[in-house]
Specification:
Elements lengths: L5 H20 L1 H39 L18 H12 L2 H15 L16 H15 L1 H20 L11 H47 L5 H48 L2 H24 L6 H30 L5 H33 L4 H7 L2 H9 L5 H29 L13 H20 L3 H35 L5
Helix pairs in contact: 1-2, 1-7, 1-15, 2-6, 2-10, 2-11, 2-16, 3-8, 3-10, 3-11, 3-14, 4-5, 4-11, 4-13, 5-6, 5-9, 5-11, 6-10, 6-11, 6-16, 7-8, 7-10, 7-13, 7-14, 7-15, 7-16, 8-14, 8-15, 9-11, 10-14, 10-16, 12-13, 14-15, 15-16
Amino acid sequence: MKKIKKRVFIPALAVVGGAAILGCIRGDLLSGNLENLFNISLDKLGWLYQIITAITFVLCIILSFSKKGRIRIGGENAQAHYSFKSWFAMSLTGGIAVGTITYGVSLPMIYFKNIFGELDGFGVAAGSEEAAVFALGRIIHEWSFFPYSIAAVSALCIAYMCYNMKKPLSISSCLIPLLGDKKAGKLATVVDVLAVIALVLGLSGSLGGGIVLIASGLKLIYGIETTQTILIIITMLFAFVFIFSSIRGIKKGVRVFANINTYIFYLLLFILFICGPTLFILNHTTTAFGYWLQNLPLWTFDTGILGGETLVKWWTIMTWNFWIVYAPVTGIFLANISYGRTIREFMIVNFFMPSLFAIIWFGVWGGTAINWQMEGVVDFVPIIQQVGPLRALSAFFNNLPFTKVMIPLMFGLLILSFATSADSNIIAVSSLCIKDEGLENEAPIWVKLTWGLLCSIIACTMILFTKEQEGLLAIKYMGSVGGIIVFGVFILMVISTIKIFFIDKND
């Protein structure tokens, strides 16, 4: 039996478990404290989030096209452990949680109709053709190359330090180029504890959104009322799938689920693209890409002065924050499955291809939703205003072609999308809690089970023991606070990456 790192496992368990207990007793108090932390950090550090994210984007571009791209993770003779297809499937689904599906409809619509004032700073008329292009262009900015650069830089730093510099497969190894082995070793426990706490909080938030989304879909489509019993059943279903997958391990669990999930992604995209407003999707997505390129400098560095607090703080920076939650721990998983690949191949699979997939996904789903709104097929605006963004997707389901086939596929996709994101991260989190670090030395089943159950309990209690909207806000803030916790660590990882590849000799 592998020995547990008590200095990592116990403090992280205490903090996360305390959050779960507080959520049961005083969900409103937990939500209020999380909100305060969130507001303070994003109000004061929004400019830094923008700069760091811009740096990661540039780093990925340079590393992809420079001679550094020829460096092989693990050394010249290293052999890849997984096929290209399985590698991409695990990379794609490991970074996509329910957020991509959730916001595939609601976020383009929010921007398109200026529901919360997102267009106020740009002089774009709500509901116009320019608004449609703006909406899809802004989505490209917030959900493609920039967020995936955050994950890619973190993973590359971990991979190089572990497999090329022969350091432990851990987050703290990324601090060695800056602090040296001795000082980095002293900080290792603190870094690992923070990463575990952040990731578990982020996963809890993602799971909570998935629970509410499934429940609202069942009510709208099948007339099943959202009772406590239904919410608990949905939570148990989610928990069973991703905990089962994590217990099975990477080859027998994560890889299999990831391949299945990608096939469903591809099938749904194909059906909706062919049966939906195909020409509208092609025209508006293409134009939106050009619109994004035209506005890239401004959007990259705008701290809210021009775009406004609603757009920049509550959407853009919130998105960067959410991805930073996952970056360090997800980086461990992505590093492990990328062994034997060159840096150029690494960037293709972890940066370029998932970014292009996100553009296509939002172009098809968001473009279809915008077209339906224009043509009067369904009015998403009152649904979002009166009930919330999550319910917009349920209304979208109800108007899909081949409803009897598509709706069950969508529910299955939601469950698998969370599972294939959560299972890989539960494995990585658990690996930080054992002394034999590395995903090839996976943690005992009971450790994975502990973190999986805690994520489920926190998510469910936030919904059960608060009003729905308060619970959703608590979940939202929970994920954001997780990003705040590891933000400093992530900055050091970015600086280490720069030092490794552009200052130190490593060719």
